[in-house]
Design a protein that fits this description.
With about 120 residues, this protein is an all-beta fold. Helix content is about 0%, strand content about 50%. The strands form two sheets. Strands 2, 4, 5, 6, 9, 10 and 11 form a seven-stranded mixed beta sheet that branches. Strands 1-3-8-7 form a four-stranded antiparallel beta sheet, with no helix packed on it.
Length: about 120
Amino acid sequence: QVQLVESGGGLVQAGGSLRLSCAGSGRTFTSASMGWFRQAPGNEREFVATSSRYGGSRYYSDSVKGRFTISRDYAKNTVYLQMNSLKPEDTAVYYCAVDLNGRVSGVPSEYDYWGQGTQVTVSS
């Protein structure tokens, strides 16, 4: 059974940094895309960043470009999201997700598996 477990969330002051991790298990993920989405209360799930199969391409939403960096450790089946210069509007539950087709995509419906989420709260 495929499982994705996020960690690294927490409370941070505006301008600070956090590093999220998502560890996958149950299959290999080398040929899959691994990405990050977020959802704040009352809002729809929002694309953040993704890394395509084999790490060939990375794609970021405009709202985080230049501040967030996605990376992968294939040996550990893990994807990371380094978040710098955090803003209060970054506050949300952050989810990692897997697209078995390995696409570079910001469309939630194109992802096959999802983690349980980790809370990120940025205070002003």
